[in-house]
Amino acid sequence: MESEELRNVGLKVTTPRLKILGLLEKATARHMTAESIYRQLTESGEVIGLATVYRALAQFEAAGLITRHHFEGGQTVYELERGPHHDHIVCVRCGRVEEFYDKVIEDRQREIATKLGFNLSDHALTLYGECSGPDCAGKKKQG
Amino acid sequence: MESEELRNVGLKVTTPRLKILGLLEKATARHMTAESIYRQLTESGEVIGLATVYRALAQFEAAGLITRHHFEGGQTVYELERGPHHDHIVCVRCGRVEEFYDKVIEDRQREIATKLGFNLSDHALTLYGECSGPDCAGKKKQG
DNA sequence: CCGATTATGATAATTATTCTCACGTGAAAA
DNA sequence: TTTTCACGTGAGAATAATTATCATAATCGG
Predict the structure, then answer these.
(1) For residue range B93-119, what is the model confidence (pLDDT) as tens digits?
(2) β-bridge pairing B87-91 and B118-131
């Protein structure tokens, strides 16, 4: 359960935290902004402060429960850290986000870092392009 | 000359634009923020508005003269688009930025995009780690 | 050199995020 | 259970980065 997750990382189990984690858990929204989380909760009747959302997200990230991404031309988005690591490809036209994992690239990154004298701790790889999804062609960035 | 560059991309040749381009041209500052450009120009006696710096940078980027990067935990930085494409590795301790190019990764990205049905137009790859530079060990993020 | 167009500097406005603070709540201990 | 109190919370102020506004000024084709 979500309460477990919170306890495991040393965070008190509170209503706002559970609500936010619960929202991120719904597969319907793999990548959400602080704003959209706040909006969805508020619209479904919850009373929560935007600051609380930001606070919780920062804590979740520090605890490794979620990951933060900053895609071009958009706000910062958060996603649950579930399953294996992956990178993203974003459609510059409709905003759709797909995930992928490529071992060749991952290995290569480590080699490069080593060669340059860095101890690799993280990386951010995002591809941008136009997708061929059925809803894409005319669609705008999202609202 | 810099005036040429501006004319070539259809921008009027103005003093602020020349100054900014000139600053970026100096190899001493491969990656600069809008703020640092503004500060350096102001400190060397120029009279320029911060808004003008942002405007010029946006235009230069649109024209392909410069590239914009948004590294974790820092402001947006700009660099001259000179020479071949490259990606970055950033030291999370001292903020030093190194550049690298890896054909294997580049090729792989294109293949991945194609496989996922995207027409790749751009990508952002940044590695993060701790460097072993002589000035690093104790140094802080930069001031 | 002139005038229409575009750029500029100063500053107000916006946007995203963080801080402040009085009050509320979770959970360890009694 | 109740108590206790460190920690969490909501509301709104504060900050930081960036963008818009607007009156003035500079560019450049004719």
Answers:
(1) 888 899 999 999 999 999 999 999 999
(2) parallel
Which residue, A83, A109, A126, sits at the end of a domain? A83
DSSP per-residue letters across B26-50: SGGGSSEEHHHHHHHHHHTT----H
Contact B104 A109 (CB under 8 A): no
Q: Any residues with CB less than 8 A from the CB of A77 and at least 6 apart, and which? A: A31, A32, A33, A68, A69, A70, A71
**Cα–Cα dist A34/A128, whole Å:** 22
- Do residue A110 and residue A123 come from a single domain? yes
Domain with B127, as residue range(s), is 85-143
Chain B, 49-108: which CBs lie within 7 Å of strand D? 50-51, 54, 58, 75-76
Count of structural domains within chain B: 2
C-alpha radius of gyration, chain B, whole number: 17
Are residues A76 and A18 part of one domain?
Answer: yes
CA A94 – CA A137 distance, rounded (Å): 8
Distance measured from the CA of protein residue A125 to the C1' of nucleotide C1, in angstroms: 55
Q: Looking at the structure, do residues A60 and A49 belong to the same domain, yes or no?
A: yes
What is the per-residue pLDDT across A48-74, written as a single tens digit (0 to 9) for each? 999 999 999 999 999 999 999 998 877
Q: What is the pLDDT along chain B (143 residues), one digit of tens a residue?
A: 889 999 999 999 999 999 999 999 986 778 999 999 999 999 999 999 999 999 999 999 999 999 999 998 778 999 998 888 999 999 988 888 999 999 999 999 999 999 999 999 999 999 999 998 877 765 444 43
